Amino acid sequence: MAQDTYTSGSGNWTAPAGTWSVLVECWGGGGNGGNGGGAPSGGVCVSGGGGGAYAASTIAVIPGVSYPYSVGGTATDSTFNTNVVVAKAGTSASGGNPGTPGSGGAAGSCTGDTKYSGGNGGSAVAGQSASGGGGGAAGPNGAGAAGTQGGATGTYAPGGAGNNGSGGAGG
Q: Strand 85-87 to strand 78-80: parallel, antiparallel, or no bridges (unpaired)?
C-alpha cells in the first residue's frame, strides 16, 4: 500500500485510481516558547509553548479527485479537505519573566475520529533564569505530556514527552 507524507506547506493530494478510502493523520504545529531577550546569559526566564494536537480519520475519497491539505507550522493548525480532519495547534507562550505558558492544541476543538490533545507548556519561575519546557506533541498513541516547570537558576526544564514526537527543551 502506498503512503504519502507531507511535512510542510500546503497543496492538493489526488486520490489514485482504485483508491476509495484513506487514513488521514494530522499533527497541529507546536507553539513558540517565550522570548527571553538573550541566551544563555543575560536572558530572562520564559515559559514553554504548547504542543500540537493529533487528529485522524479514515475517510471516503473518489479516485482522480484532488483534496486540499495544509501542514501547520508554528502555532498553526493542520488540515485535510479544509475541515474534514483538523489538528489544532499549540499556542505560543506570551510575555517574559516568567510569562504565560502556551496551551496544548485541544482535542475537543479538533475534527476526526481519533483526537488527542497536545501538552501544555511548562511555566518559568520568576526571579530565576530557568525556563519552562515545551509541551509534547500528541500522537496516535495518546496525548502529549506537559512541559516541566523551570527549576533552579541556570537549569533547563525538559519538554513534555510526545506520542510519536517529543517536546522542546526549555531555554
A: antiparallel
DSSP one-letter string for the chain: -------SSEEEEEPPTT--EEEEEEEPPPPPPP--SSSSSS----PPPPPPPEEEEEEE--TT-EEEEE---TT--EEETTTTEEEPPPPPPBSSTT-BPPPPPPGGG-BSSEEEPPPPPPPP-TTSS-BPPPPPPPBTTBPPPPPPPP-STT-BPPPPBPSSSBPPPP-
The pTM is what? 0.85
Is the model more confident about 70 or about 40?
70
Percent above pLDDT 70 for the chain: 76
Per-residue pLDDT tens digits for 108-135: 999 999 999 999 988 877 666 567 777 8
Burial class, 43, CB count within 10 angstroms (exposed 0-12 / middle 13-18 / buried 19+): middle
Q: Tell me the C-alpha to C-alpha distance, in Å, between residue 144 and each of 2, 39, 87, 95, 133.
A: 28, 27, 13, 23, 13
Residue-wise pLDDT for 128-138, tens only, equals 656 777 788 88
